[in-house]
Amino acid sequence: MELIKRIKQAEAEAQQIIEQAKAEAVGQAEQARHQRRGLLEEAERRRKKAIQDAVSRGRAQAQQEINDLRARAENHRRQIRQKAESKMAPAAARVMDYLAGENHT
């Protein structure tokens, strides 16, 4: 009788251990899902920030290139203007000489 009582008690304890293990497994699985979800959300935030940073750097680089190109274009225009102005006075003098020579002939 005592042996049967102990066996039933052992079975009840085993069943309780099994139920407790199942509950712990469910809790751990839920915790793992929650942790994975958090990691995925953090990865998504990092990805979006990396994209925003890359876009921001790209815009800054593009703006710098625009400014550099504008400065180079302005320098080029200035050089062309200086060359044209340096040739304008002698050309105008030749035209005036030519016209003055025509008037006298």
Could you please describe the fold and organization of this structure?
- It is a single chain.
- The protein has 105 residues and is an all-alpha fold.
- The chain has one domain (1-105).
- It is 98% helix and 0% strand.
- It contains one helix and no strands.
- The protein has one helix at residues 2-104.
- The protein is rod-shaped, with a radius of gyration of 45 Å.
- The protein starts with a helix and ends with a helix.
Structural class: mainly alpha
Proportion of strand residues? under 5%
Give the H and E element order: H
The total of beta strands comes to 0
Radius of gyration: 45 Å
Distance between the termini: 152 Å
* Shape by Cα distribution: rod-shaped
Average pLDDT score = 92
How many DSSP H or I helices?
A: 1
Describe the oligomeric state of these chains in a short phrase. single chain
What's the structural blueprint in terms of helices and strands?
Elements: H1 2-104
Quick recap:
With 105 residues, the chain is mainly alpha-helical. The protein has one helix and no strands.
Main attributes?
105 residues, 98% helix, rod-shaped
